[in-house]
Amino acid sequence: MDERRYLAKEIELSASPEQVWQAISTPEGMSIWFVPHESADGEIEADFGGGNTQAGQVLEWEPGRRALYGTPGPDGEPAMTFEFLVEGKEGGTTILRLVQSGFFGDDWEAEYDGFGKGWDMFLHNLAEYFRHFPGLPVANVVATGFTTLPGETVWARLIAQLGADPAPGERVRLTPEGLETIEGVVDQRDRMLLGIRTEHGFYRFMADDLHHMVSTVQYFYGVTVDRAPRTARWQSWLDRLTGE
């Protein structure tokens, strides 16, 4: 009996198969909608902020159609795999399918729920990128704070520090202390998720009770961003937020 559990996602994108393939098969493409990626010596490394990085390898590769990535386990077999399938449709759209296999720990139902919501957010980013910023390069800012506080407590602090608790579709002006003002439209909203689409990209804020962390992932398209100092400022802001 196969004990490996998996989740599957599917999204139709207003883009050609070539554009979607580029977005899921290159570090530059993955950075556009996911988190910053770099490749070296056969490994691909994803940066989730706050010193939290994850490395993996390409396990299987069918150019233009299918890519399978995996993270190594203690026995040499992949502990977790991510399969992307690209299929063109009539009318110029493309179907992207994602299958994630393998979960950590014993609380797999909570992990399944958490990963599922995370993929929903990131795939939404990809759809919105093709809709609003197609072809533009990205500059990412990612920061993550870790805490022993309950997620609801940290989330309430984050909302208070942003200066607004907006509803989906609402135009908002956020004023985090010591940081840039954020003006845009709420394009994602959940219990502990807030997404803002601005003139030049996306701001994403989320809290994760399972992994005891709170994060922001930011995407700036076609503009110059001084990433290192901006990342440091946001990391400091989250570290203050998660302090007890």
UniProtKB/TrEMBL annotation:
InterPro entries: ASHA1/2-like_C, START-like_dom_sf. Transmembrane segments: none annotated. Residues 15-130 form the Activator of Hsp90 ATPase homologue 1/2-like C-terminal domain. Pfam families: AHSA1. Belongs to the AHA1 family. This is SRPBCC domain-containing protein. It comes from Streptomyces bathyalis.
